[in-house]
Queue: 2 jobs
Job 1
Amino acid sequence: MNPHAQSAVTEALHQAIATLGETGLQVAAIHQGEVVVDTFAGIADPATGRPVDANTLFTVWSMSKGVTATVVHRLVERGVLAYDEPLARWWPAFGAHGKGNITVRHVLSHRAGLKDFKNLSPEAMPSLQATGHNLEEAVPDWAPGASMGYHGLTFGTLLGRVVEEATGHAFADVVRAEVTGPLGLHDLHCGVPNDPSVTDRIATLHVAGDPSPSLGHAGITAEERASLQGAATGFNHPAMRAGCIPAAGMIANARDFVRHYGAMREAGLGGVRLLTPETIAGATVPYFGADGATVEWIGRMGLGYIIGGSPHLQCGVVIPSPWPDSFGHTGLGGSLSMYSPSRDLAVALTKNALMPGRLECHTWDLVMRALCNALGIPYEA
């Protein structure tokens, strides 16, 4: 641990709670293969006052996509999957209704033309089988590669079902085989077990408080609050927590999540390297639709990862960092994790207060600036 960095980031977390409307937070960071920060602050459950500690678990929303992408990349490295093969090669039922040419690469880069589920009941969301059947019956909104748009939830089902078909194993079991098992992670789940030693540690999602007027940010509107509250209520439900939602449903703490990105180091982490430098180089080339479109809120998206050097188009913070080689993923409301090869730095932020897009990355910016200042890393491209 780096005492200076630990103190600086802890102070940043308390500042975020006092001024940005945050409630409960964790941050972990690995620099040059060593844990330099593992800290937390705030309240895990506002209803009971249960505090956050290092073992609190948080719903990480679309941070999940980074882990799902890593699983796919690992399977490609071994020849189990291939980027430019159609999903229907492994999942024949998916090829119906003009979807036979949609490839793994199209899905990883959000260019598959299946941005949203249509006519899907909320009860079906935790089931990969149910959401997969929905997409078997779907008709694409555009031809593969013709445009680009964020596949917020369909991303996970498309890739998750292909992984299951190609490996013959449940997606959650493949995550354990490919990521959490090799790294010895016990607190990164794609579907939590029915075990109070796990479920009692999960933080309650809720809408953030308003930021301090002195910061110049407008408060959360009634419309924004209603939308975020709906998301919080849905994902606080035990069925959602227990289900397999590879795009948005993983639950973890920061200290385990950061090891996923720390193991992207060329030298590995604890003897484990998740992806080769060649795979990472290919996964961090930015993609666009043939019409020039990118996803609605970020300018640089690779194969499953957000790439650094581009601002969040709603809040203006450059994510996951100003360094163009950095890669990772945000989660709804402001959680985020990433790795930068040039700085050999992995960072994870987990949280339970949900913010609208225009506010959601300011806590990350505060944390990253405090961390980099403490480590003597210039926070610029």
Note: The longest strand covers residues 34-45.
Job 2
Amino acid sequence: MRIGLKQVFVSLFSVVVLGACASSGQDLPQVESDQISAEMLLDASPLAEDAELVDLSQIDILEFSPEMADFVASQIKEHHGDAGRLQRLLYAVMGEDNFELIYDETTRTAIATCQDRRGNSLAFTNIFVAMARHAGIDAYYQEVEIPPLWSLSGESCLLSKHINVHMKMNSGMVRVVDFNIHDFSTSQDTRVISDNRARAHYFNNIGAEHMLGGDTLLAFNNFRQGVLEDSTFSPTWIKLGNLSRREGYPEYAAAAYLRGLEVDEDSLVAMSNLANLYQEQGQTELAAHYKDLVRAHRMRNPFYRYQLANEAFVNGDYESAIQNIKHAIRLRDNEPRFYSLLSFSYLMSGDRQAARRWMKKAESVADQQEEKEKYNYKLELLMGKDGGKK
């Protein structure tokens, strides 16, 4: 699948709650998780299989080749301002007949993406940041939080992050290039991050690819490098825990999950994995403790309350839907879909006036014209032929 101006994709850096895993290290001496330091997780882990640790620090995800420099020079004219150079670069990289990037599931450096003309969204972001900087555009990596997806039971969830490009124009304006099949929304939580943090994402992705491929040592070395790049990046500690758990080292898994929770005290995935791991180990009190933390956390999460409201709406319990979605709005008041669901809940409960009011709110909160038009259309449907009278 080629990438064009209308076809831009995202790769999710996901961490999920795991079930029971394979065991291969049960004959080794058991070590209590509270005795395993962060240094031990990185430098004395049984995952290293007594092999020499590989130094991956020399990998440059933004390495720039002469071919890339020639391409940028052929497309960007020096007399353009940075806004003009950005526009030219966008057409050059994502135009239908120019660079011809093809989406696949593999994470690549900028130079490898150029050579192979393919990659996932992080690969595309790497090459775009590298080219933008070479063209004199002030480009940074930006981390985007994706709302969690909950299982029907609410006991597990999928949490995702992806990265896009944040650019500061000389005019003071900010431009964002997002390799996402869905339109980027300004209501999503974002933050500009350092190149080291972006490198942590890269090694986290590469490690996950090796873990899925069954190469434990390569996976461990990449997770280790990711932590060395940014020790506050919780997803890599959690992936390291998943790998330890899969290979039969539950104490090392627990230590890694606990480290992930230490650097991000709101990490629901770390809590969930700890609850499941302790349950497997027969440590019921610890399992119950982390299950309680998960329950308390999810009830404070606006997207979980939104999901509860959605389920209540589908089941015809409109009063519960209204209560849950109002709670979600109190926690997060810039999500138009929250107001839209509230509107339809009032409509189904017979209050058309409230339904119209909340759909107007959804339209006003929507940040993009296409999205505003969608909610305006829904509002017109609610108005019906009576001119808006109740």
Note: Confidence is low (pLDDT under 50) at residues 4-30, 385-390.
